[in-house]
Amino acid sequence: MEEPKYRIRARHTAHTVTVYQAYPPAIGLPAAREGRFPAAWKRDRMTWIKPSFLWMMYRSGWGLKEGQETVLAVEITREGFEWALRHACLSHYARGFHPDRAGRRRELRRAPARVQWDPERDPLLRALPHRSLQLGLTGEAARRYADEWTVSLTDVTPLAHRIHALVRAGGAEAARPLLPREEPYPEVPGLLDHLRAGGADGDADGATRGATGAE
To answer: What string of DSSP letters covers 32-49?
Structure first.
């Protein structure tokens, strides 16, 4: 069956969902060690979370880019994740969806979360036809993420490096057994109705393209 263009795929349990971020070691290592974000993590800044492991690998260069050397798997509550989605707006202007650009900018200033849909990636980090969700958190959403929603933080940098080595040595199929299993996220009816229209195909007016999730 063909993959829908806009759908959340993630590791999830009945109560949690796993997202990924990449940070410099000064942030990522203490976070993984303590199981919470340290005081140095800026709660007043926008932070981007990604349910797709391979999209995080694409943005962080398998955890090898400067400032993104520590890749974290962040398990958060589904309640918090869905709160952010309900209070999110699209990060860009979409013709035929937003009535006008000025209204869209006002919405963007008010919303504590924003969504953009970028091409999902395969193990060779090539773009796929369907999209991967990127969820930006700011203000109340960022503070709740760090201090209320986070259940666990795990340093998955060694896994990223191991998969990268397998891809380089044997191609995509050699790496697939180690990839986190990401399945369609069970949506409450209407959860993404205000975020799918236009998707990533709208006019990117002020979109945060290439957001990494790192501080």
So the answer is: HHHTS--TTS-TTS-EEE
